[in-house]
């Protein structure tokens, strides 16, 4: 395989952090079908790996991700049969977004350059996205003549409200990193030389936290987006019951009693 043309998604352990790199810089890290399949497999494996405590997603080169490789998909010489997208997307691009959104581990994205379409939605689905000042977030679906996908119509209104979501989805307006941070679309915009250090500080903090409690808190936050207050508090009760049974809970209490920083082990 010509990796420069076809690209790869690499997943490498770095202690308790899983580092996923989108590596196709010649195509702004657009995701081919094999790359998405690898991405799904890496996240699926991570979801059941009790030794992991955080996930880091980044792009190779000067861009984060320019979305799905629709050019390759539509230039194979034979038109896919009717219903191809309906059959495939739930298990490919949509599945990546679902896994990032639901996995019981904190996910950090580091974004340089373009984050477009599915690439933009990867950054929106992450728990924390740090981007360089010159990064650009763009949902170009209507500019290409088709409707939005990969969770953009669910993620954007919840992050920035209906009016700003319509600006991005119906008008196809690009949003720079500073504006994205101001809107609450991403966690933080930083000068390019600071991207690595800021992302690593965040990953270190998350990976040294009480992993089970963080995962349960993440689950409760998203559950509450479509629940009543009473339903959300009931969900919190079950989560508290689980987190109180962890070793990290006992360590947190001991550290509070001893007036020292806790040493959480993620269990």
From TrEMBL:
InterPro entries: ClpP/crotonase-like_dom_sf, Enoyl-CoA_hydra/iso, Enoyl-CoA_hydra_C. Pfam families: ECH_1. Coiled coil: none annotated. The lineage of its organism: Bacteria, Bacillati, Actinomycetota, Actinomycetes, Mycobacteriales. It comes from Mycolicibacterium holsaticum. Belongs to the enoyl-CoA hydratase/isomerase family. Gene3D superfamilies: 2-enoyl-CoA Hydratase, Chain A, domain 1, Lyase 2-enoyl-coa Hydratase, Chain A, domain 2. One of its GO terms (molecular function) is catalytic activity. This is Enoyl-CoA hydratase.
């Amino acid at each position: 395989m010509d990796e420069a043309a076809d690209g790869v998604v690499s997943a490498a352990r770095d202690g308790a952090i899983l580092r996923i790199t989108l590596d196709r810089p010649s195509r702004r890290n657009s995701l081919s079908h094999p790359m998405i399949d690898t991405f799904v497999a890496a996240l699926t494996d991570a979801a059941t790996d009790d030794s992991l405590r955080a996930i880091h997603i980044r792009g190779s080169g000067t861009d984060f991700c320019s979305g799905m490789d629709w050019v390759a998909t539509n230039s194979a010489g034979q038109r896919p049969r009717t219903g191809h997208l309906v059959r495939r997307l739930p298990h490919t691009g949509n599945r990546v977004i679902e896994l990032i959104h639901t996995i019981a581990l904190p996910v950090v994205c580091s974004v340089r350059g373009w984050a477009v379409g599915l690439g933009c939605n990867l950054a929106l689905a992450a728990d924390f996205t740090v981007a360089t000042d010159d990064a650009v977030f763009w949902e170009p679906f209507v500019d290409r003549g088709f409707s939005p996908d990969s969770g953009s119509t669910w993620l954007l209104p919840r992050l920035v409200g209906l009016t700003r979501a319509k600006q991005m989805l119906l008008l196809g307006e690009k949003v720079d990193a500073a504006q994205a941070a101001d809107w609450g679309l991403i966690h933080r915009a930083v000068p390019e030389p600071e991207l690595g250090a800021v992302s690593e500080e965040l990953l270190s903090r998350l990976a040294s936290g009480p992993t089970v409690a963080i995962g349960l808190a993440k689950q409760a936050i998203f559950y509450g987006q479509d629940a009543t207050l009473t339903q959300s508090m009931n969900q919190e009760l079950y989560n508290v019951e689980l987190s109180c049974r962890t070793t990290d809970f006992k360590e947190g209490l001991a550290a509070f009693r001893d007036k020292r920083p806790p040493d959480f082990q993620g269990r």
